[in-house]
Write a structure and sequence with these properties.
The chain is α/β, with parallel strands linked by helices. The chain is about 50% helix and about 15% strand.
Length: about 260
């Protein structure tokens, strides 16, 4: 299968080599930035295109669009001309399948890897759940097969709907993005005492390890789940000069107490 990657950001940087290793052929990479396009294309040995989308090949079997959600509709509209019969997919968690038809392209799909991506760290796709969707059953089968080749485990590949994906993405924001932000806040608190965030890594590793065996609510520990008003009062007082963190602390503690009463 010949694939053209539209975008050279975090998702595309991880997908490109993984697709090559799975047996697919990434023939071109496009980005608005020449530097980004050439850098990613250079890692997998394919052609780079930049600036105008009109320069992108019209011979690919699949166009994987990994761009910002706000740019997706415009990119699809520009790609459509001369590629009317090609299968195009986006990789976004919250954007619906209907964005393709609304942009004038009928043969659209979704190829959503539910994972956090960074350019600095390669993702192991054998551990990634994929959620796929397409306008036709034939194209769904194409995407299921491609995702299975990437993961090596068809149990990680799921046929989805746009509504299901939106809920998945929302849940992922809580489980990943908000948790990472709490780690950022932790890092700042530690730095004030000259401590490095690395001291938290064993704690975080064990927290995640427990979630492989226990439901999150059952794995919860800390002063809020114990209803330890003395400790919570002391810690809130320590945040008196940080009203935003104090509000976050209070809100999360109250939420933990409510949920722990159900367990």
């Amino acid at each position: 299968m010949k694939i053209a990657l539209v975008g050279a950001g975090r998702v595309a940087t991880n997908l490109a080599p993984a697709l090559q290793q799975s047996g697919a052929e990434v023939v071109e990479v496009w980005s608005k930035s020449r530097t980004s396009a050439e850098a990613l294309a250079g890692t997998i040995g394919c052609a780079a295109r930049w600036a105008t989308l009109d320069a992108l090949t019209r011979e690919a079997d699949l166009y994987v669009i990994a761009v910002k959600d706000a740019a997706l509709s415009d990119v699809i509209s520009q790609l459509h001309d001369g590629r009317e019969k090609a299968l195009m997919v986006h990789t976004a968690g919250s954007m619906p399948l209907s964005v393709f038809a609304e942009a004038g392209h009928e043969r659209g799909g979704v190829f959503y890897p539910m994972q956090t991506f960074s350019k600095e760290r390669a993702v192991d796709f054998s551990q990634v759940h994929f959620f796929v969707e397409a306008a036709s059953d034939t194209d769904v089968d194409v995407l299921l097969s491609l995702a299975s080749a990437l993961t090596g485990d068809e149990r990680l590949v799921h046929r989805s709907t746009s509504a299901m994906r939106r809920r998945l993405h929302l849940a992922a924001v809580f489980a990943c993005n908000f948790v990472n932000h709490c780690c950022t806040l932790s890092d700042e608190l530690l730095a004030e005492s000259g401590l490095d965030f690395s001291v938290m890594l064993p704690l975080l590793d064990e927290t995640v390890a427990k979630l492989h065996q226990l439901p999150p609510a059952a794995a919860q520990t800390g002063p809020a789940v114990r209803r330890d008003e003395n400790v919570m009062g002391m810690q809130k007082a320590m945040l008196a000069d940080k009203p935003e963190l104090q509000r976050i602390y209070a809100l999360l503690s109250e939420s933990i107490m409510r949920y722990s009463s159900r367990v």
